[in-house]
Write a sequence for this structure.
């Protein structure tokens, strides 16, 4: 686990890698680990104006993450075919507390499985690229801005102390949803948010398509 964590890069390092290699057609690979599949997308530097490409997801037949040699081969092929120079992995923090819940646990489990199946990262080009975790919902910054959303070290949030006499179907129930933050995320949306943060001007000027993505 410690060796795996030592491979993690700052998000800015992944962006820097793409800056350096934007002229040779390099891309960044975005991954979104779900309970029964992995969302996969590749994107060129925003200066090219090329939308993010969502690829066919990697699906698991047993409804839970099961990394095998076929998974490693799929990632290796994508990295080779699309000249991947960095990897952005979705980091789905709990919306209510900003903590690492079951969804983040699935990400860690998947990365550990990939690490072990690739002989400590040596047999997979995935871990030979800078990769980072990315919270596309910016949960922690939102909590800093809104005192009512902050939690103490016991995980208590002041916002839940308010009385609400008229609950409706749009209310958020942590007991139902907090374990499935990963199901709410779309892999290209993760890239688009990452792109907007690191290249705001290019992002604003580059994408002409409404959703800023293609699908293959």
């Amino acid at each position: 686990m410690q060796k795996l964590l030592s491979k993690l890069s700052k998000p800015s390092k992944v962006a820097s890698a793409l800056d350096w290699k934007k002229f040779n057609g390099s891309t960044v690979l975005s991954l979104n680990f779900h309970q029964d599949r992995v969302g996969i997308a590749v994107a060129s530097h925003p200066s090219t104006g090329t939308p993010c490409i969502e690829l066919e997801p990697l699906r698991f037949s047993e409804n839970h993450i099961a990394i095998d040699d076929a998974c490693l081969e799929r990632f290796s092929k994508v990295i080779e075919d699309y000249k991947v120079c960095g990897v952005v992995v979705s980091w789905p923090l709990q919306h209510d507390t900003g903590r690492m819940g079951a969804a983040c646990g699935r990400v860690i489990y998947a990365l550990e499985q990939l690490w072990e199946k690739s002989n400590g990262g040596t047999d997979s080009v995935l871990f030979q690229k800078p990769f980072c975790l990315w919270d596309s919902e910016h949960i922690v910054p939102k909590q800093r801005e809104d005192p009512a959303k902050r939690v103490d070290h016991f995980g208590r949030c002041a916002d839940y102390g308010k009385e609400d006499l008229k609950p409706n179907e749009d209310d958020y129930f942590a007991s139902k949803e907090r374990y499935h933050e990963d199901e709410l995320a779309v892999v290209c949306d993760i890239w688009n948010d990452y792109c907007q943060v690191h290249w705001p001007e290019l992002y604003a000027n580059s994408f002409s398509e409404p959703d800023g993505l293609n699908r293959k």
Notes: Strands lie at 27-33, 37-44, 52-59, 84-90, 131-134, 213-215. Helices lie at 2-6, 11-20, 69-81, 102-117, 139-145, 174-177, 187-198, 200-206.
